[in-house]
Amino acid sequence: MLLQAHDVAAQEIYSEEAIRVTPPPQLPFLNGGDEVGADSPNGDCDVENVTRVRLVQFQKNTDEPMGITLKMTEDNKCLVARIMHGGMIHRQATLHVGDEIKEINGVPVANQSVNALQKILVS
């Protein structure tokens, strides 16, 4: 099973050190800017608008439930609502409550029902 997760964890849950796994990029074209400092008036790159996307992969060998509950927000984003303690997702520790799911098995999840997404997860 292949999930592409968009980490949307709030800063009050995770410290700045936990969020920043790698140092910020030192590229002049950050966020599509044409030159260094084009993203902010004071000449600094605007690192706050950078989004981190993780590719998360799961191998299901049994009929064991994944132990995850998804929810759709009002703006049609799919979020991890709950992770069952001891379940497959909990043991692998690759997803967290609040993570945004962008795709499941290559299928975009935006504007889908939770029931449809659960069926994709089981297949």
UniProtKB/TrEMBL annotation:
InterPro entries: MAGUK, PDZ, PDZ_sf. Gene3D superfamilies: 2.30.42.10. Residues 55-123 form the PDZ domain. It comes from the Eukaryota. This is PDZ domain-containing protein. It comes from Parthenolecanium corni. The lineage of its organism: Eukaryota, Metazoa, Ecdysozoa, Arthropoda, Hexapoda.
